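Q: Can someone sanity-check these two? First one:
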Amino acid sequence: MSDTQLLIVGGGPVGLSAALLASQHGIPCMLVEKFPQPFAHPKARGVRDRGMELFRFFGLEKEIRAQATHTPKHGFVYCDSLSGEEFGRTPPGPEDTTLGPVGSCRIPQDSLERILRERVAAAPGVEAHFGTTVHSLTQEGNQVRALLEPTNGGDQHAVTAQYVIACDGAASPLRAALDIPMEGETVGYWQSVYWHGDISDVMGDRSAIQFLTAAEDGGFVTVAPVDGHTRWLTFRMRSKDSGHPGLLTETQAQGLIEAAVGRPCRAEIMSAATYAVEARVAARYRAGSVFLAGDAAHVFPPTGGFGLNTGVQDAHNLVWKIALVLKGVAPRELLDTYESERRPVAQSNAQWSKENAQRFDAVWERIITKAPAGDPIERQRAHLAAIERDLAFRYTEGALAGGTETVDEANPFSAAVGRRAPHLWLGSPGERSLLDLLDGRFTLLYGLVGDPWQEAAASIGTHLHLPLHALRVPSAACDVDPAEFDRLYGISPGGAVLVRPDGHVAWMHGDAQPGDHTTLLAEALRRTLAGEGL
């Protein structure tokens, strides 16, 4: 029998991120993952802007970019085959470098997992067990008892934990054991084959997120670059009405690849997989001391690239709350805000991803009948132009305290209670971001004549044993452009903005009366930590 404060089940990007966050917050944790090595069949092929911001906080941005595979010039290319007639292109989503410090990055999931595994192995306070499964899990009072078992045989080992985060995937055995249903629908099935081969003669100078070739028996057969050179994924979409189609045989996979490429092709087939394409969200995110995160909590069609990214944000939302509860700073009720904040985001992303998948049907019908396909292709811009969904989503209830400042509704990237705090460069653009000062602790940003907020923050932080950092803006420590700060944050010179450890705004307030600063800030923190919402 061994004890840990936090048990993380599942060592994909979400579980690994949760372990790194636990280490940063000083929570001893244990991570268990059934696969000894990352799954070789690539799943996600990119990290969106907010996901890259979170990996930046782990100090991994440069390492991830060093393994980035390619920067596609186009979003989708529609054609008979790679060597056949082309019908149209959907441009990639615009990269607005003013909205964040990092932008997105094209990296295969298996490569990302290797980077995260290496960092977890060196993280203080993390005990990682790869090649290990959870045989059973029971809850008694405020403790969870798990029985661990090596996948290659060996003795079982019991662990007790105060909290468990289940990041064990779409088929989540822990979710099933907790009897938590998934709500939503199956969209279809994707048969997928991962292969290596040289098709540079038909690619030419084209590069895209995905090439979609119209199969006459229905739907698209894709060629999706993994590295843009020799590693590829080919998918075939199958209707949900026909049932699970099973795995492609090697002969079927070879035929599918050659049909998509449009000529005989020497393809080295690495692996095949078939999975249900679903838009489903768990009915509950919490059962006692066990929380669902990532694919265990929500599964989306891959048409949009929000699965991995939403899951990493789940961990970023949850772990700081667990840390404050374990340290006695916040009540257990704070943990209820994880579901009230994250579940609506998952529901919205599931619906959006499903609509993206359905638009492909209209494009296919136009192409296969040789009709002009311009309008459906034009509508697919919405599939890739998702920066607002990624960076400007807003929590409307949860660990929030409201405020008195007027929100600029015309600018979804401006500060508002529940939104991610806006990015601004510190000093020279391209080096440090205001976001770098906010991650991992409560931060109070206050205006030029708001020095009493500094005194209030110091007093309350000491009283609550809460890491509470106060920054005057602008100042030597926070040398942002004053005009840009005013445009995006909009607080008065005597006002203040309280930002949570996950970078979301909890409270905004205008000028306070003399003597009010401590009272107002204490009440804002009380409401935030108790999870009373707006």
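And here is the second, same format, sequence then tokens:
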Amino acid sequence: MSKKKNIKSSFWEFFQGLGKTFMLPVALLAFMGLMLGIGSSFTSPSTIETLPFLGNPVLQVIFSFMSTIGGFAFTYLPVLFAMAIPLGLVRYEKGVAAFSGFVGYVIMNLSINFYLTQTHQLAAADKLREAGQGMVMGIQTIEMGVLGGIIVGIIVYLLHKRFYDVQLPDALAFFGGARFVPIITSIILSIVGLLLPMIWPIFAMAIAGIGNIIYKSGPFGPFIFGSGERLLLPFGLHHILVAMIRFTEAGGTQVVDSNTVSGALNIFYAQLKAGAPISSSATAFLSQGKMPTFMFGLPAVALAIYHTARPENRKKIKGLLISGVIATFVTGITEPIEFLFLFISPVLWVFHVIMTGFGFMMMSLLEVKIGNTDGGILDFLIFGVLQGTYTKWYLVLVVGAIWFTVYYSVFRYAIVKFNLKTPGREETTEEVSKEELSHKTKGKYDVERILGALGGKSNLQSLDNCITRLRLVVNDMSKINQLELKRCGALGVVVLDDHNVQVVIGTQVASVKTQLEKIV
């Protein structure tokens, strides 16, 4: 029974820590998404055509610069996850862990490229998306999106945990300890990189099958496409499905201005250029389907997260949520909001996937005719409102209001009912009282005495802190002397299970934790 509890405790600690590591790249993503969205939108030819003053050369240079800088986080998001996960999870030698994450990610992609080259599977430059390939740091490789970074991050964490203090024979001692982590990482991830291309085509074949199903599904095609695209997003496989629908026969074939055109996006642009009536069967797979979710649903998620956060934490998360809402509402960049719940509640993610699919189907059934790719307010205005009422743009507002209500109600209920640790509700802050925030002790804390009351160095597995508490994982809870800890100045001791305990120190907890780490 004790062994089972220990395993359960380790899983609890791992997933709690994993969730925290995601916040580092997500916070950067929210800010960069704002810059990218504004920059790319205001340099778009369609936007300049509608608002000519934006074509000013000085403004264009500024917006282009914003777009370039903002694109950084999205271009390198997988490698950011590969570095942030081991950085956040390991207890010792964190710098080595992050360095190893970078090394492992690059080597994995180099190995993938080597395999594709040797087996003559490298796609032509203009066929990358259709083949499920892309460029990563100048390396042509399989397009795995964030999943690739997460795979590397977790593998590096496990390798670091096992080898960071390894002792090698004297002749190889220089390569021992922390130096061995990037070495073993390069070996293991190179093997992983050779194996992945053998597995990944199975997913590509499945996606091609989905494309054929969409083509033959009539009114349900947009639903399958919209939900499938969202479902595949975390795995980086959505590009294959999107490319099939936008540019191949799977997205339909029509004659436009005496030319046969295939692919939903190709048809829309051809009709727009020729001044021909816009086909609702083509726009069914384009911007309009995203609008209920992107412009209304995800902002409702942000509001639900804000309202369910502890009142004292709302100011802290407001900037993160506002920047995420602006990114999705203006340009359809959804990751800053989606990543806030994707890894916390897979059930809510499935709900989001289904609702996105229904958004596509609803817009199709109502015969709305708004094309393009982003699904934000700019597409709504430029390709909807400004094109006239024949696009039925007003129906987006009606459906959007319903989507906002449903998303907000479901997310707020789920967050409260299941106590989901969305931003502002984390365990590190949810139980902080005014008494804890104001608690102080006379003089300095006797850290060595506190360590003794915790059972000594050998009793500590993990040491962390929140705003007011030391958060510890210990080997033997019976060695914790609660009375002695209170004599040392602690306000209280909270035992969570057989191995997790919190010691309430007050606002000086960070200093106490740092001193404990030095001793340990």
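A (reply): Looked at the second one. The chain is about 65% helix and 5% strand. The chain has a mean pLDDT of 83.
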